[in-house]
Write a structure and sequence with these properties.
63% helix
């Protein structure tokens, strides 16, 4: 499955996507953001962008997303 963020395209394997999803759901819950909101979409896009830039550790992603 190809995922596109901005102009960068990279394959995200299902197990990697699950890792991203867990971090995303934690963030949405912590920030009290509705899943179907523009804010949630922006969080997801940023999270995927960070992942594709090489930050693939769940704790590192959580830390960067909380800044």
């Amino acid at each position: 499955m190809n995922k596109t963020v901005g102009s960068r395209q990279e394959i995200i394997a299902p197990e990697d996507f699950r890792k991203i999803e867990v971090v995303f759901r934690d963030l949405v819950r912590q920030k009290r953001v509705a899943l179907e909101s523009e804010e949630a979409d922006a969080l997801a896009a940023r999270l995927i962008g960070l992942y594709q830039s090489g930050i693939q550790d769940a704790e590192a992603l959580r830390h960067l997303m909380s800044c």
